[in-house]
DNA sequence: GCTTGCTCCTCTAGTCGCTAGAGGAATTAG
DNA sequence: CTAATTCCTCTAGCGACTAGAGGAGCAAGC
């Protein structure tokens, strides 16, 4: 069984060394076995698992979700409804965030469009910030 | 001069009490004067300033930007170019975030669309997460 | 005057997902 | 054998709060 050190795992999975230790501490990676000199050793399964984690993080899944996805991935006979549900929740979350940001975008654009590059005294941006009533959004 | 307590300021500006203290500590609000019993007292100007801060936060400006905007708002004769620049930077930031989220959204949607509700063994979601090569995005 | 209950005070720690740095030990290359 | 590199643990920091402990001040009702 060939084993690799944490730096090599870091390179193979494109995850920084301290992040790997952080994932171990958070229980996403099993506690690594150690050499005599107390250094962590890893194998091919760890590379796969860490790549899975990294990819899920890139897609914006949070650590709790990833923990659940990893657990599920280890039970290949179970129906994938739970996996689906996690992804669906995440999609809904992303949609929410896009919607909120799109609203903000419209506000900021509108402020900028109204600003006529004069003095701060008559700057619409400052006025809108100062007086909520002047503003487009109503969500409070 | 009528003064109000922190709880009343909290209600009038819709900002929670600990958050007001936090803003004071971060220098967005001046250090409040105190009663004999060491309680903070506020006036109308504080209500206006805090509402400005809250509104800017709702629009997603970060505290450093708000600090700058508050400074600028106090110099009404200056040209509003700097105000504009801050808002413009913020707009660009929001656009970035929307773009990234839109990319993620497409990924997640595509995974979900490919999942045929079978077992985890053949779940496309798990497969895509496990193998980066299967994935749409290329940004790494 | 006294108690009850609310508001306020300070201080610390927790959230999320890392990242950075200190200070030291182990390994590897030359 | 030494120098460079990699690794170890531990602590603290980011942003913008939020939550809670433990205690003091204050207004209203009896």
The proportion of residues forming helix of chain A, as a percent range, comes to 55-70%
> How are strands sequenced across the largest beta sheet of chain A?
1-2
Rg estimate of chain A, integer Å: 24 Å
Number of H/I helices of chain A: 6
Oligomer state of the chains in this structure: homodimer
Total DSSP E strands of chain A: 2
**Could you name the CATH topology of one domain in chain A?**
Multidrug-efflux Transporter Regulator, Chain: A, Domain 2
Give the ordered list of helices and strands of chain A. HHEEHHHH
Choose one word for the global shape of chain A.
elongated
Structural notes for this entry:
Two copies of one chain form a homodimer. Chain A has about 140 residues and is mainly alpha-helical. Chain A has a domain at about 1-60: Orthogonal Bundle (Multidrug-efflux Transporter Regulator, Chain: A, Domain 2), CATH 1.10.1660. Chain A contains six helices and two strands. Chain A has helices at about 5-15, 15-25, 45-60, 65-75, 80-115, 125-130; strands at about 35, 40. A two-stranded antiparallel sheet of chain A has the order 1-2. At the A-B interface, helix 3, helix 4, helix 5 and helix 6 of A face helix 3, helix 4, helix 5 and helix 6 of B. The first copy, chain A, binds a DNA duplex (30 and 30 nucleotides) through helix 2.
């Amino acid at each position: 069984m060939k084993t690799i050190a944490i730096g090599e795992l870091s390179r193979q999975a494109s995850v920084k060394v301290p992040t790997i230790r952080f994932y171990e501490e958070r229980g996403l990676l099993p506690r690594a076995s150690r050499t005599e000199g107390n250094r962590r050793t890893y194998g091919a399964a760890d590379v796969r698992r860490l790549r899975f984690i990294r990819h899920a993080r890139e897609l914006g899944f949070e650590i709790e979700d990833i923990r659940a996805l990893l657990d599920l991935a280890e039970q290949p006979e179970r129906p994938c409804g739970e996996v689906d549900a996690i992804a669906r929740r995440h999609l809904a979350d992303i949609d929410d965030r896009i919607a909120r940001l799109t609203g903000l975008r419209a506000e900021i654009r509108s402020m900028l469009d109204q600003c006529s590059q004069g003095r701060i005294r008559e700057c619409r941006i400052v006025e809108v910030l100062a007086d909520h009533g002047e503003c487009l959004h109503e969500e409070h």
